[in-house]
Write a structure and sequence with these properties.
By secondary structure, the protein is α+β, with helices and mostly antiparallel strands. The protein has one domain. The chain is 37% helix and 33% strand. It is built from four helices and six strands; from the N terminus they run E-H-H-E-E-E-E-H-H-E. It has helices spanning 7-16, 24-37, 91-105, 109-117, and strands at residues 2-6, 41-44, 47-54, 58-70, 74-82, 121-124. It has a six-stranded mixed sheet with strand order 2-3-4-5-1-6. Strand 2 (41-44) and strand 3 (47-54) form a beta hairpin.
């Protein structure tokens, strides 16, 4: 399984973590651990919402992450927002993310490698913990 961040997720994450006590590597580890460990909110089209706590606020005031998951192939973090900025993604955003998910479904190893090389996707070295 490959673990990836799309370019917009990576940029937004960097901005969001600027004033946090957690660094990118720790956040990503927690994100993918939570993805595997906890119940996921299935949004359809292989998209899942994962909640991550914010320092001192818990999950209710934390971050919402949208992840695309193609079983045995790839996990791609595609969207992040702070709960304090908005309650949820809009229907319009969800439609866009579902279109993006359809495109991700067609990715082959060769295309993923090309996207990583061209910095469209960022590969993360994540080792799944035993559950």
């Amino acid at each position: 399984m490959r673990y990836l961040l799309n370019k917009s997720f990576s940029k937004k994450l960097k901005k969001e973590l600027k004033n946090e006590k957690i660094n990118k590597k720790e956040y990503i580890q927690e994100l993918f651990d939570s993805f595997h460990k906890y119940k996921k909110d299935n949004l359809g089209a292989k998209l899942y919402k994962i909640r991550i706590a914010r320092s001192g606020e818990g999950k209710s005031g934390g971050y919402r992450n949208i992840i695309f998951w193609e079983q045995r192939k790839a996990v791609i973090a595609v969207y992040i927002f702070a709960k304090g900025d908005k309650d949820n993604i809009s229907n319009e955003e969800l439609k866009y993310l579902k279109i993006l998910a359809q495109q991700y479904e067609t990715l082959t190893e060769k295309l993923i490698n090309k996207a990583v090389k061209e910095k469209i996707l960022e590969e993360i070295h994540y080792e799944e913990k035993e559950r």
